[in-house]
Design goal:
33% helix, single chain, alpha/beta
Length: 212
Amino acid sequence: MVSNADIRFVQISASLNPLLGGPHRVVLGVTAKLQKVFNSSVIIFGTLNVPQPTFLENQTFLNNRYGFVFGRPSKKVTLLLNQADVILIHGFYLASTLYALYYSRNAKIFLMPHGSLETYQEKRSKFRKMLFKIMFNYLLRERKIHFLLGSQSEISSVEKIFSNASITVVGLGVDSDFFFPKVKQFRKDYVTLACVSRIAEKKRIDVCIKAI
């Protein structure tokens, strides 16, 4: 009988920069939970930026944040991917995502796109993204991939690209205990609108302002 501790669970991510917001927090949060249950490893293609001695760091070409390595990833990285039973990929349009598919063997693959497949994102760099999808589908071949999304709104965006996608919404927002500890104090005759995000164009804070 195989126990959870026998399952080799490998996560893949590009640079863990706190300025990137959500993905950085999600990788750390998911890792903390996985390491309690599985034989879990984390591979970072790029700069780690956080003190995590158990993470395996593979330097990227000119320290790019897309996970691109000049030549081949390190032997430790390729060996981990070869032997993995389960692989969780963070991000989509990244070289690290392609490395995960190329070097993995029979691993079950999960992918958290972190919003990179949202419709408004697809309008940018269309040619580069088209080439990426061709390489992605070629490396994926007959294997199936399971998408883990942060919200229901992402489902339609993913299904436009992967019509037969297997999808689970795991919910990766701010914990209610963190932001709404005194929700009973809100006045009943007002509608309260809240936005929790980093200040970045892609977060569309302008839409929140217009809503008010």
